[in-house]
């Protein structure tokens, strides 16, 4: 389970205490979850080793990635823009880090965009397309039609993302069988403000959903 958009020690500590496998930090100035690389680095030091540290960037140039990687020392780079397979290869060669590539999904043909990245990215993250007028490529709290993933090759490793919350995660997991999930705005009381009780409710809901399905090695 990845909790994304962490900005405070309280939220980061709570996420790992609940058992989050991944802790995400957003480097995108237009986001209410944006955090300065040095601040993120200080937070990450407090939870390092208990959750994988994920740096989320959007079409970042090398100088921005240099700053983020140097300050945060992430375990994983989440590329949440329009990064091409060639760009992913370049980023991996420069930084030597696993890459999780976000792809936005609205219709079944969007799954065709997976193929060029196979063998290049370490994992996919499937998010909804941003609503019209949104300035954010992610963190919009909107879901896509999870049934579209029925057409997905079972060997594709991905995190399910986009508009997840305590009320819908049971259905999302039942429909997709996703082994890993990512949440940001669904555990916030205001944009960029994590709510510990909403985090509790989300983890409870995931655990309930996991208990109800056949087990084959949960990684949520
Ligand atoms: O959260 C953001 O503000 C953000 C900004 C830029 C790129 C990605 C961002 N967040 C990612 O969006 C998804 C889904 O978020 P939500 O649960 O629907 O709010 C998640 O992968 C975040 O990593």
From TrEMBL:
Record protein name field: N-(5'-phosphoribosyl)anthranilate isomerase
Pfam (any one): PRAI
Keyword terms, alphabetized: Amino-acid biosynthesis, Aromatic amino acid biosynthesis, Isomerase, Tryptophan biosynthesis
Top-rank lineage group of the source organism: Bacteria
Gene name tied to this protein: trpF
A Gene Ontology BP annotation from the UniProt entry: L-tryptophan biosynthetic process
NCBIfam families cross-referenced by the UniProt entry: PRK01222.1-1
Family statement: Belongs to the TrpF family.
Documented EC number(s): 5.3.1.24
Catalytic activity annotation: N-(5-phospho-beta-D-ribosyl)anthranilate = 1-(2-carboxyphenylamino)-1-deoxy-D-ribulose 5-phosphate
MF (Gene Ontology): phosphoribosylanthranilate isomerase activity
Pathway: Amino-acid biosynthesis; L-tryptophan biosynthesis; L-tryptophan from chorismate: step 3/5
Domain N-(5'phosphoribosyl) anthranilate isomerase (PRAI): 2-204
